[in-house]
């Protein structure tokens, strides 16, 4: 603003006219300085661009006493270098952005149009001016056509440069003052004022461009968050179902409503028949095509890409009715297609259809693609689940057939075995009455013993099968009674001592003062006998088998004996990988029978189910050359009270 104050340095006494001019210059200078401060404050307070530029124009008009102050923006044809979509070249047109005018001056803003400036030498000069040239362009308008167009007699114009994307200066527009009532020369003071204000306009434009850029980035970030939330919601809904049709329906419906598209559909491929059938479609303003089947070979340009796990978007070239209620509304549509695939191949595709003027954004493409992937995974899981369920059903059917067979065979075998036992007893009586030699009698007794033992073993096997069948079917009801454990133990153990004695095995019983137990006596007998027989069977000659009984406490009532715990220990080792299998039906540990007497593998399976029938717990530990079976038998006092 040095030009505005240069006249104050004169040593000669000014005339009254010069004095008025000096005062006017000082007042104008102060107004423009105040304008600059106010404009900068508004710019950094993020005031709207129109308001800031309007304030600048109005203050400038009043300070320079002109008829019009106006800010122009040039129309661009190339937006590669400029910010906020502005280009580096003007196409010869300009748009009035803001205008400040005197009351009796015509308004250019009211025309609401773009002005052609290509024939105006002043505007051509502005387009060619260098950014570092701070001189304004000014001229007097003598052309009648120009006066009619702009209603101006003289003017001064200052170019406005902004920074482009490559940080180079770009001609954005200009700020101009017009004198409409008379042709006044544009003094250096006025040109200096324009030169002072032009950077403020540029700063306001740059700030607005920055705010718009930040706003766009914030909107894109918000859209990304919204799309991620939408994707999570759709993924949760898709994975909530194990039904293939429900999965497709959820995915299609959610995508259609999330993107507000005209139509969305999903198709499943039949790779053998080379067909694609739409399984579900959600439409908003397009006609539905649900269950339509397409021949892949008829559209190789589409399905070759989809079968290669690709996605693409295009605009259809044929007209179609896009509004059922308004048949006259016809047009092309924009389509986005994504493959539904997983590691095992392509399952189907997901299509999104919109109006022809719609371009799918990167976020929309990403959303549809990820939904298609999640849908493929869910469909594959549903198919695996259905296959596994079919296998489970088939296994259950086979297991039921097996159980029915075992039950039938067991019942059918029970009667002949009972008859055999009775026949053997009668035969023994008859043989004793016959007069035979001692050698013949001994041979007959040995054969009878074999028959009796094998018949007994067959009877035990059938009994085990029947008991297991009843336990698994829930047909075995426990009969609770009061058991004196000391008397019961002596009586029960007596049944197994003969087998232990024949193998020179010893049974050691370790017990303490035991409480009275309320349980099923028959089940308890069966458990002890089976465990002792199993210990004897898998122990070597001369081994010691230990049976230990102690009081037991439940976790919910510490310090109060609520049952007993049985421990059966024998000198045998079970491999760690075999230990979890020993309670399975028909399972026998390979090469673990020192007496070679065989078996069916039902004994421990029966023990496990009998313990479960009493509500107890069974465990087995094998280490340091010995195996210990631990059984917790609860005291069923409450059930006895209920039965009483």
Keywords:
23% strand, 644 residues, alpha+beta, elongated, disordered N terminus
Main pleated sheet: 6 strands, antiparallel
Shape: elongated
Q: N- to C-terminal separation?
A: 115 Å
Proportion in β-strands: 15-25%
Helix content class: 40-55%
Secondary structure class reads alpha+beta
What's the average pLDDT? Answer: 76
Radius of gyration: 51 Å
Number of strands: 21
Low-confidence stretches: 1-14, 16-24, 79-87, 320-330
In DSSP terms (H or I, runs of 4 or more residues), the helix count works out at: 14
Strand order of the largest sheet: 3-2-1-6-5-4
Architecture overview:
It is a single chain. This protein has 644 residues and is α+β, with helices and mostly antiparallel strands. Helices cover 47% and strands 23% of the residues. The chain has helices at 2-5, 16-44, 49-64, 121-128, 144-150, 188-239, 244-259, 300-307, 362-433, 438-473, 485-502, 521-537, 603-613, 637-643; strands at 68-76, 90-101, 115-116, 137-140, 154-163, 169-179, 263-270, 275-283, 293-295, 311-315, 320-321, 330-331, 333-342, 345-355, 480-483, 506-510, 517-520, 544-553, 561-570, 617-623, 626-634. Strands 3-2-1-6-5-4 form a 6-stranded antiparallel β-sheet, sandwiched between helices. The protein has a 6-stranded antiparallel β-sheet with strand order 9-8-7-14-13-10. It has a 5-stranded mixed β-sheet with strand order 16-18-19-21-20. Helix 6 runs antiparallel to helix 7 (244-259). The chain is elongated, with a radius of gyration of 51 Å. The N and C termini lie far apart (115 Å).
């Amino acid at each position: 603003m040095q030009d505005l104050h240069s006249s104050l340095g004169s040593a000669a006494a000014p005339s009254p006219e010069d004095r008025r001019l000096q005062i006017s210059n000082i007042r104008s200078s102060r107004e423009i300085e105040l304008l600059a401060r106010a404009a900068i404050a508004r710019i950094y307070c993020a005031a709207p661009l129109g308001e800031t530029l309007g304030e600048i124009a109005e203050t400038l008009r009043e300070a320079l006493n002109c008829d019009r102050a106006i800010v122009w923006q040039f129309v661009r044809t190339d937006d590669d270098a400029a910010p906020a979509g502005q280009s580096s070249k003007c196409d010869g047109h300009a748009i009035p952005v803001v205008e400040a005018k005197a009351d009796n001056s015509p308004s250019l803003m009211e025309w609401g149009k773009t002005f052609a400036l290509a024939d105006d030498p002043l505007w051509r000069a502005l387009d060619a001016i260098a950014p570092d040239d701070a001189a304004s362009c000014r001229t007097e308008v003598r052309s009648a056509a120009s006066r009619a167009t702009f209603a101006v007699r003289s003017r001064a114009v200052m170019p406005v440069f902004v920074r482009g994307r490559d940080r180079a200066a770009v001609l954005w527009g200009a700020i101009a003052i017009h004198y409409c009532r008379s042709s006044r020369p544009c003094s250096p003071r006025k040109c200096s004022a324009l030169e002072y204000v032009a950077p403020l306009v540029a700063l306001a434009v740059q700030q607005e461009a920055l705010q718009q850029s930040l706003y766009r980035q914030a909107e894109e970030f918000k859209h990304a968050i919204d799309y991620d939330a939408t994707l999570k919601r759709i993924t949760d809904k898709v994975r909530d179902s194990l039904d293939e049709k429900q999965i497709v329906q959820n995915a299609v419906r959610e995508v259609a409503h999330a993107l507000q598209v005209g139509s969305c559909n999903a198709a499943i491929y039949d790779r053998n028949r080379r067909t694609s059938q739409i399984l579900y479609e959600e439409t908003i303003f397009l006609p539905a095509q649900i269950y339509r089947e397409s021949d892949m070979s008829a559209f190789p340009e589409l399905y070759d890409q989809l079968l290669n796990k690709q996605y693409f978007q295009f605009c259809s070239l044929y007209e179609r009715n896009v509004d059922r209620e308004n048949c006259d509304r016809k047009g092309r549509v924009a389509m986005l297609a994504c493959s539904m695939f997983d590691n095992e191949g392509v399952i189907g595709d997901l299509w999104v259809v919109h109006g022809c003027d719609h371009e799918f954004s990167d976020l929309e493409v990403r959303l549809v693609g990820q939904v298609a992937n999640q849908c493929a995974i869910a469909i594959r899981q549903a198919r695996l689940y259905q296959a596994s369920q079919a296998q489970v059903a088939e296994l259950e059917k086979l297991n039921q057939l097996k159980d029915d067979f075992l039950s039938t065979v067991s019942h059918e075998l029970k009667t002949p075995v009972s008859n055999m036992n009775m026949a053997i007893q009668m035969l023994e009586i008859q043989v004793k009455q016959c007069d035979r030699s001692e050698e013949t009698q001994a041979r007959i007794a040995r054969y009878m013993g074999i028959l009796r033992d094998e018949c007994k073993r067959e009877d035990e096997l059938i009994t085990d099968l029947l008991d297991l069948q009843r336990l698994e079917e829930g047909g075995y009801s426990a009969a609770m009674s009061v058991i004196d454990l000391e008397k019961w133990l002596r009586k029960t153990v007596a049944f197994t001592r003969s087998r232990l004695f024949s193998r020179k095995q010893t049974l050691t019983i370790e017990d303490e003062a035991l409480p009275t137990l309320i349980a099923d006596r028959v089940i308890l007998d069966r458990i002890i006998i089976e465990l002792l027989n199993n210990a004897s069977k898998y122990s070597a000659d001369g081994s010691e088998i230990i049976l230990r009984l102690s009081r037991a406490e439940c976790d919910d009532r510490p310090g109060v004996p609520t049952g007993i715990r049985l421990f059966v220990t024998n000198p045998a080792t079970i491999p760690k990988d075999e230990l979890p299998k020993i309670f399975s039906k028909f399972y026998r540990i390979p090469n673990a029978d020192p007496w070679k007497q065989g078996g069916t593998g039902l004994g421990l399976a029966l023990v496990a189910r009998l313990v479960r029938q009493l509500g107890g717990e069974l465990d087995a530990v094998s280490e340091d050359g010995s195996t210990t079976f631990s059984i917790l038998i609860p005291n069923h006092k409450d059930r006895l009270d209920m039965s009483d």
